[in-house]
Amino acid sequence: MTILRILEFPDPKLRIKAVPIETVDDSLRVIIDNMFETMYEALGIGLAATQVDFHKRLLVADVSSEKDDPYVLINPRIIEKDGSKVSEEGCLSVPGYFDSVKRAETVRVSFLDRGGNQQEEEMTGMLAVCVQHEIDHLDGKLFVDYLSETKRQKVRKKLHKQKRVQSDSSMVL
Ligand code: GNR
Ligand code: NI
Predict the structure, then answer these.
(1) 134 is catalytic
(2) What is the reported pTM?
(3) 69, pLDDT greater than 70
(4) For the chain, which residues make up each domain, given as ranges?
């Protein structure tokens, strides 16, 4: 298994629109396993393929506290939305930044599972928030896109500064 590198805002690759997956085979399942390993290691509750520079419509999630409820959604599609709810979001591609985002409270999602079987499920709570956040990634959209340009500019500067500190300290290694 392999820990994959997670792309960070404002990397233009995060803007690529992912294409549908045509066949669910063992080579895809290797990527799925690596995405789970990467997500768990990064302490995330979800990960979209786009974030690991794989531009196909695939996401993984596990919002359980025991980390024992893995979800694989291939070619996910929201077929019904209900209600709305504001929650505090974060993103592994926007490290260290959190802000409120309004999304549907409940979503009905159709997708293929890791066996390639068609599934349909109603999701609510943290899972609904997470799946909407991940599907946005597959469309090249980030949660900071819902914020004002001023806030987004602040995030960009903060991440830029973090990167500078990181490369400064690695110069002495
Ligand atoms: O780990 C994550 N936590 C999170 C919290 C609130 C709303 C969405 C998320 S998803 C995020 C992992 C991630 O960046 N997935 O794309
Ligand atoms: Ni994210």
Answers:
(1) yes
(2) 0.97
(3) yes
(4) 12-169
